[in-house]
Design goal:
Structural class: mainly alpha
Order of helices and strands: HHHEEEEEEEEHHHHHHH
Strand content: 5-15%
Number of strands: 8
Radius of gyration: 25 Å
Shape: globular
Strand order of the largest sheet: 4-3-8
Length: 358
Amino acid sequence: MRVRLIILSIFLIFSSAHAIAADNDSEHKAGKFDPAEFIFEHVGDAHEWHIVTFNNHHISIPLPVIIYSKKSGLHIFLSNKFHHNHGVYQNFKLAQEGQYKGKIVELNSKGEIDENYPLPYDFSITKNVLAIFITSILLLVIFINIANTYKKNPDSPPKGLQNVFEPFILFVRNEIAIPSIGEKKYHKYLPFLLSIFFFIWFSNLLGLIPIFPGGANVTGNISVTMALAIFAFFVINTNANKEYWKHIVNPPGIPGFLKLPIPIIPFVEFLAIFIKPFVLMVRLFANILAGHMVAVVLLSLIFIFSGMIAWLGFAVAPISILFLIFMSLLELLVALIQAYVFTLLTALYIGMATEEHH
């Protein structure tokens, strides 16, 4: 098993290194290598899915651009339209610099950014959005297949996909849902917990694969983790019982002078309602983003040192690759741990909100 993991890691690393090196050939020829721009470009979102750069020619998958302008209404087209006519299409442009960098801006009749309506409403299918769709479809295909197999042969031993995923399903049920929520109530919340666990885990694993359909930094995007945290927030608070709200308004075991005349503790308890999903959001985002950034930084060292002295880049490359092998093995573990931690904390918060008075 360890040998297979190492081989997989080496494959992923050298694929990443090749793709990134090819992508930066033109940058080296044009001028000095900018590590900050390089790093944030590779961990950020995009309106197209870059595959590889060959002989300074970028091969990418164009993605649908869906924007609504207050001036001209709805516009739908593919992102490769920005590759022509100096990057302008239907008076819209994908900004490459300035405060709107990476965003679609609207231009006026002079070809300048219209400061009255600079940013149209953007509903585009970006790289991360497409990755979310791919992960969701993958989850549906796998687990609908498993569910149908269980329905047809409920008493037969697990095999195939059942055999692979049943231990994880039982783990979420027996080690997360039941201890955190209780045997009487866990059934109601188990589908939600399983969904977020496998969605985060699959997204993290796909993010480690450098070639399509992998490589998207889904859970390292704070908008995605915010959406997951908002789902958890509504599940927690819409199912909270009166004991939970009573505990917030009048926490037991707290001295009266901390409640009246200035409700210090109730105010803190009320803030905790919003702090809990905020913690979920930031914890997942920071850990996944940090992992991706460390990997890209290690690769950047090769280009930084080669920019100083050509042979120095070759000398640093083996060290960077060794560290990348270690980071890749660690990221395989972190991908699962972060899915576990997010699911566990969500289950604990649900358990606290639904706990009966003793």
